[in-house]
Amino acid sequence: MLNNTLPEWGALDTHARTMRYVHMNDLVGEGRVKAMSLSLPGLYADFSRQRMNDDTMGLLLSLARACDVEGWRDRMFSGASINTTENRAVLHTALRRPAKDSVMVDGENVVPFIHDVLNRMKAITDAVHSGTWTGYTGKRITTIINIGIGGSDLGPQMVAEALRPFHVDGITVKFVSNVDGTHLHNALHGCDPATTLFLIASKTFTTQETMKNAQSARAWLLAKLKKDDAIAKHFIALSTNEKAVTAFGIHPDNMLPFRDWVGGRFSLWSSIGLSIALAVGFDHFRALLDGANAMDRHFQTAPLHQNLPVLMGLIGVWNRNFMNCSGLAVLPYDQNLLHLPAFLQQVDMESNGKRVSRDGETLPYATAPIVFGEPGTNGQHAFYQMLHQGTDIVPCEFIGSRESLAPYADHHHILLANMIAQAQALMTGRSERESNNNPHQTFPGNRPSVTLLFDRMDAFHLGQLIALYEHKVFVQGILWGINSFDQYGVELGKILANSVLDSGKNPESQGKIDPAGAILLSLTA
Ligand code: F6P
Fold it and tell me: What is the pLDDT of residues 19-65, one digit of tens each?
């Protein structure tokens, strides 16, 4: 059964027909802000700037109950195989559980395995930082290059950048993802093979881009160090696929494993996060896990009407399906969160960019929004014009921190003033009267936003923030009745790329290329 056939969905549809004509300016007030905000330890969330009235949230909460959000949540945390198309559990949350906890998968408590890997990550991190892990020639490691793509790149890269104020002196961490040789070439520029450690991050260890970059990195290293046994000192694999890791030439002792119940886009908490630990030290990595675990506990235990991931998921569905908004702008007022929009593109769009239900029925309603964003204030001078006066209404999510980790306190005041002002301007707009009847200077307002204000963006709060978004996206997947945990949509292009690559040698592959592709191929030959 599709979720839009539920009476609760129908009631929202009817209610939305009225709400589309309501302006938020007619709803505002202190009481509304109190009712539509939430304080968690270290985090204040304002969602009063939404095109909703008292009835809207009640109807949305009824939809959440009708879709059994709580039941699905509990099944996810308990290790049930909720990734139905791949028949797998979805247990990235287990990666942030304390050692005393127990999470059962197929009769095994997986927490001891998780902590064994965490201990190995800590040992490697400490050894690299103390200089007891040296390169093949005995020199200290100074450069870490993480080679991975998608979830094996976006999460660790985003977090490593977000925690820049905590970077360990003497260590530079770089990320290579694109199969474009420029990416690897630029990363290797200025590196000394004797002091460079490569992390080959790939859940499957078969991803074309990562394998190609890893092979070229190995060739670069061996061209300089000459000896095959240098690999052991300069390559670590982060993967689920021991066979492929061994075949590549990395000994299992240099492999940090994780399990198939960790989805790629949720894997930064696993051994895939080694680059983070190497960048900032293991204590900060532990704090990141603790922050995420705190958000997990909130998601698991708070009543729906005070449950932040649930509320944000409901607001997202309200805007997407009932207010017909197709975009979502993620706007961190924090330069260190530079890569957050790209990371959330994968979390949201790879999870929920689906057109059929869990049972394979075509969906008659919209799913994942188009996620984009830039750190404030840069975005203000790029695309905010469209947010304020364009013909589409794009819900915005503002993210800031009370305290800055940078030394220039007076900059932070200006930064936060801009964030607060933008949310207000989007909502209130500027009337024709206020703009002297100049249509070019009139702002319709009524443009919704959520504001998340953290105490500071350290590892703990960053963990909270990421887990909040993971669970928000999960809630939306349940409300849409889809499987948020597969990603078959990336397959077709990959298969065709292999045919294009193979077409010079193989007539069968050649036959799979369309006329436009054939001409483009001939022009690149
Ligand atoms: O983009 C598809 C995808 O499978 C992602 O889900 C994943 O994060 C990425 O490729 C990389 O996969 P792997 O870690 O197996 O190399």
Answer: 999 999 999 888 999 999 999 999 999 999 999 998 999 999 999 99
- For residue 328, the SS3 value is strand
- If one counts every other C-beta atom within 10 angstroms of the C-beta of residue 516, the result is 8
> Which residue, among 191, 117, 91, has the nearest Cα to 147 in the 3D structure?
191
Q: Which atom of ligand 1 is nearest to the CA of 264?
A: 8
Of all atoms in ligand 1, which is nearest to the CA of residue 272? 14
Q: How far apart are CA 322 and CA 38, in angstroms?
A: 23
How confident is the model over 71-107, as pLDDT tens digits?
A: 999 999 999 999 999 999 999 999 999 999 999 999 9
Annotated active-site residue 298? The verdict is no
Q: Is the pTM higher than 0.95? A: yes
The domain locations on the chain are 3-67+302-480, 92-283, 491-523
| Cα–Cα dist 412/123, whole Å | 37
* Residue of 185, 381, 411, 413 marked catalytic: 381
Task: Please determine, looking at this structure, whether the domain spanning 92-283 carries the CATH number 3.40.50.10490.
Answer: yes
Residue 37: enclosing H or E segment and its boundaries? Answer: strand 37-40
Please pick, among 185, 243, 413, 494, the residue that the annotation labels catalytic.
Answer: 494
Model ipTM value: 0.98
pLDDT of 343 strictly over 90: yes
Active site residue 494: yes
What is the CA(383)–ligand 1 centre distance, in A?
30
Same CATH topology for 3-67+302-480 and 92-283: the answer is yes
Cα of 151 from ligand 1 centre, angstroms:
6
Q: Decide: 490 in ligand 1 pocket, CB within 6 A.
A: yes
267 lines ligand 1 (CB under 6 A): no
CATH code of the domain made up of 3-67+302-480: 3.40.50.10490
